[in-house]
Amino acid sequence: MTEQEIIEKLLKSNEEFRKLKEEHARLEEKLEEFVKKKYLTPEEEAEVKLIKKKKLELKDKMNEILNKVKKGEVQL
Q: What are the pLDDT digits (tens) for 35-54?
């Protein structure tokens, strides 16, 4: 089973993974809004940094679940 197939099954069967993925996507959309702006205020720049940090944390949690599936520690 490919990694993409595992991810698709996790999205269907694992609520925690699905919520992490949805939050990651929501933050990505928010980040894209900032990228479209010509200039960012210092507050917006700080928010961009926080969003990037949070996205990375979510990605790490998703990868942790993915690795547990690959090792057989978590069932699909």
A: 999 999 999 999 999 999 99
